[in-house]
Write a structure and sequence with these properties.
Layout (H helix, E strand, L loop, with lengths): L3 H4 E7 L5 H15 L7 H10 L7 E7 L4 E4 L11 H7 L5 E4 L13 E3 L2 E4 L17 E6 L2 E6 L9 E5 L2 E4 L2 E2 L9 E9 L4 E8 L1 H10 L2 E9 L4 E3 L14 E4 L1
Antiparallel strand pairs: 1-2, 2-13, 3-16, 4-15, 4-16, 5-6, 5-9, 7-8, 7-9, 10-11, 10-14, 12-13, 12-14
Length: 255
């Protein structure tokens, strides 16, 4: 097995704009993630967060992994969803990175196809309601199969997949921006792409849809899939600013 140094590289692009909006954003983000025991809740802070909709991106984080390091996790030994980064990390101490793995139901289950350790726990779900992100065509799947990673449009053959998560829309198809992508609002988004060299590129950015897709192309991704928006977060070992995130459904993890 290759070392982490050879199989993992990390890139962080962090831009601080030095404005009062940045201070408000950082304060809101901290409170929504760390003051769960107090009366402050996300809905109370939403007006301030909405004021930041039109501010420049505060922070952009991206990671590059070899597919052999990537797995997916949904439920613990008790049969309940992990929900938070610390729960999945406590169960799997060797995890170096975690990110929400796509859209989830009110019960924190996968919305569409989900395969973990070669077992299909949820089937493919076809939606053509283009008023919601999950229905923007084409839908897609990020998967690991035979030690290699891929992002494919639906329909696709799922036999033999070791890990898989369905989401939508596809951001990049064969090196080009998905023509069905709307411009979209400026919100935090996360996605996953696969480069020509086979490595997997994850990103969390405050961007509009088409800008987000271009970001994956700029980072050599041939195909890329949108995972989610508004709730997008990541955890990385050694990151002093990492939060507990969540609650989420399934998560993509890397060792």
């Amino acid at each position: 097995m290759s070392s982490h140094k050879n199989s993992l590289s990390t890139r962080k692009d962090i831009v601080f704009w030095g404005s009062i909006k940045d201070v408000l954003f950082i304060s809101c983000a901290y409170m929504t993630n760390h003051l769960n025991g107090f009366a402050i809740r996300r809905k109370q802070l939403m007006p301030l967060l909405l004021l930041l909709q039109f501010a420049p991106p505060l922070m952009a984080v991206s990671q590059l992994f070899h597919p052999s390091r990537i797995q997916m996790r949904w439920k613990g030994a008790d049969g309940k969803p992990y929900l938070y980064f610390d729960a999945v990390r406590n169960a799997h101490p060797d995890i170096r990175f975690a990110m929400n793995a796509g859209m989830f139901t009110k019960a924190y289950g996968p919305v569409g196809l989900y395969i973990e350790n070669g077992k299909e726990l949820r089937p493919v779900k076809i939606s053509r309601n283009q008023k919601v992100n999950f229905g923007i065509q084409p839908q897609g799947v990020f998967f690991i199969q035979n030690g290699q990673a891929a992002v494919a449009s639906i329909p696709c053959k799922t036999t033999g997949m070791t890990y898989a998560t369905q989401s939508a829309p596809m951001l990049v198809i064969n090196g080009k921006i998905n023509r069905n992508l709307p411009q979209g609002n400026l919100i935090v988004r996360n996605g996953v792409g696969v480069r020509k060299d086979g490595k997997v590129f994850f990103a969390v950015k405050w961007m509009r849809f088409r800008e987000f897709a271009k970001f994956f192309i700029d980072n050599q991704c041939v195909n890329a899939l949108y995972l989610d928006g508004g709730v997008s977060e990541k955890w990385e070992k050694g990151d002093l600013f990492a939060t507990n995130g969540g609650p989420f459904g399934p998560m993509i993890v890397a060792f």
